[in-house]
Amino acid sequence: MPESDIKYVTLKINGEEARVPPGSTIMQAADSIGAFIPRYCYHPGLPKVGNCRICLVEVEGATELLASCVTPVINDMVVHTESEKVKKARASVMEFLLINHPLDCPFCDKAGECDLQDYAYMYWQPWSRFREKREVQGVKQVSEEIRLYTDRCILCGRCVRFLDEQADKLTLGFIKRGGHTELEPDPDTVQDSLLAGNIVDLCPVGALILEEFLFKSRVWELEPVKSVCPVCSMGCNIWIDVRENRVLRIRPRENPQINEHWICDLGRFFFRELSSVARLKQPLVGPKGKLAPAVWEEAIAFVRDGLNKVRDSSGPEAIAGLGSPYLTREDNRMLMRLLTEPIGSDRIYLRDFHKGDRVDFAGGFIISENRAPNITGAAEALAMEKWEGSHMGDMLTKIDAGLIKAAVIVAGYPGPQISKQDLEVLAKLEFLAVIDVTGGSWEEVADALLPGVTSFEKWGTFTAKNGEIQTIRPALAPPGEARPEWRILADLARAMGLDINITSALDIKIETGD
Amino acid sequence: MKEKVLLRNAHLPESHRIATYLSRGGYKNFKKALKEMDPAQITELVKEAGLRGRGGAGFPAGIKWSFVPKNSGKPIYLLCNADESEPGTFKDIVIMEKDPHLLLEGIAIAAYAIGVHTAFIYIRGEFHDGARILEEAIEEARRENWLGENILETGYSLDIWVHRGAGAYICGEEMALISSLEGQRGYPRVKPPFPAVSGFFGCPTIVNNVETLANVPFIIERGVDWYRTMGSERNYGPKLYCISGHVNNPGVFELALGEKTLKQLIEEEGKGVPNNKKVKAVFPGGSSAPVLTADEIDVRADFDAVQQAGSMLGSAGLIVMDETTDMVNVTLNLARFYAHESCGQCTPCRDGSLWLVKVLRRFIEGGGNKDDIDLMLEICDNIDGRTICPLGAALAWPIRSVLQKFRSEFEAKLRTDA
After folding, report:
1. Which of A475, B52, B342, B408 has fewest C-beta within 10 Å?
2. Where are the beta strands (DSSP E) in B291-407?
3. Is the bond preceding A414 in cis, omega lying within 30 degrees of 0?
4. Chain B residues with beta carbon closer than 8 angstroms to that of A204
């Protein structure tokens, strides 16, 4: 319906006017003017239930306080969210919840990002009138990755609604009744949904805890970095939580168009493997099979000389470049510029990527079968009009036929392993320079092996599946002498005579339709 | 009341059999409705008669029926609330066990009026006999084509199903009843949407109490003017009163609504308090109503009069307590019931009800502190009006009223060593 045809509803909240589409709730109207109303059970990505009762507000003309998260607005409604009556009601909900909630703050991971803590501070007092025995419930396992501290649970039901509506694998439910109600995992079903990790994020308290993060850090000691998940082509937005140059946690970052409020567990736990990758920490230069460390200047010069030699003897078309859908648009664009400008070759190829199972979840979340973050972005940066899949085969055929005699391969992490057959073909090259984060089988066939970085260690952009261009930001310092790929390629291009001055990835402009 | 209406068949041998029911003129009103009236007419009639719900809320049935949207494209459901769990209430079971066909005929006429082809009787799980009797009665009715396909060749079809609950008072609340019938936990839901618009599986749904539906055939038969000879303005029709507790003659009694006062009912129908004791406290509406003291029960036993006296008629389950009753124990008993029955969904009722139990237990065991009484009053205030469903009010009103009206009994139990 066109914007002009929507009959907005106007109402007053704390004396200020709010104007919202019909069907909005009082809470949505209050959010739109920045009048914050506390909420536990309400979550914008889940069906509404209105059971926590902390969002009760005063509406003139209504006999009782109303739950703002479920009450639709009416024209000329007059709402008070900070009256004495409302404040007393909020304080009473806090008092009720804190009767049984254990004082686990000193060792609860949620401290610092806990709604119960925050609202207690904002809306309550630091003492309780409860003198009786508390309900005590144990610790349970929801899945291998998720632990449940049952008596911390405030019974908001968000996790149950999420698993039901979004993950379509409901293995959590409430058992018993009244004040004895507790959250219980289904003993007969394994919780293996790839969306399960989200229940830890959306739990307003520290009841659902990620085993991966358990006791690792206080959240205020983490530095959150905005980035994009590198696992598949969807481009879900993430926060990377870093402490002292280690990734401790990945969380979803809200993006209404792509991932809404969620990420899958493939992305959530991807960072684990980073610590076990054997990283290249310095440039290594030839002869093949006997590579030795070098400083960057030497290494760049070595590659320049190696490529020039082949160009002089066999012409520019004898040199090829292989880009990667695991690298940023800037990395790939710089590779293209290197090949086309100082070298003068148009033999540009794009390598393969992992395939997995596509998963379509009930609530609309998708894990793509294409497991690389920048497929369309790389193709576009390499100025490929119609790219239907990897060209590695094409490139390897030409190498085999002696048409290509030198190559610059920028592998990207975590690209697929090169097969033995392909390595045998690559071994025929007169000169091969490889940029990768790990050495492995490259060491047998490369003349120069230069240390690149992962998507957690540089600035750059990926193009998401829906066409959005999104920025990744460095969360970690590259190890040793490793450098972003765009920088290595820019230095090489300059060394080969290209007159450019590129000091950051942002300097590499990529116009579409170029 | 000159003649029994709702209980007219209950005393007969084999009163639950269709043969008995038919011999007493049974199902002729359903036939009349089907063949001589159209659905809108019936709804109007029930509205005009002023039949108010007999489940506890007293909401006018005809008005509720008219909330159903005409052209939603969805099937419309009628759910008969036979959960009867309000303490002190045992009237619906009398109808179900003694005159099940009366209920079935009431359901059938209401279903026809609302546009329903599938009706459910949600009966509390503990009533296994009642459920069996109803199922047998439904079988009898089907066999004689009062239910099923193409009833009396009119083209109208209706099936009634009996669904047993699983032991939860909260499932007598209409939204929780719907949730339970759908196979979910018996959690009430926020309104809007109202069940008449979106209820059972998102379809328009009407929930009516057993006694309410049992009134319907008589309205069809004898009309508005006759119906209004019983009771007074806005409080019409026959009423089943349950009297229990410290009375000589506990039981179910049928009178016109408001025909007698609460006091008269206790003294005449209930035949007074045993052992020459005096009345101390009465819960008039089942236990979910503010308590009335002995000098507050001289009020007409109808919806409006009892409300004006500061309580509510509710399910008309009068619980009588004599002068020997320890009101502190009564409060604990009440608190334990509601804490046990709280569904646990919303914070104030869930956490507040159990807190009240714990404070009261400590109180009774000799550990009452002087600010505990005001604490309990405040807990009640923090529950009342703050919950999704009326169970919050149902627990707050009686408990608060006992704390207020019998405060001295609590004060007498305070710790002396404090």
Report:
1. B408
2. 292-293, 317-322
3. yes
4. none
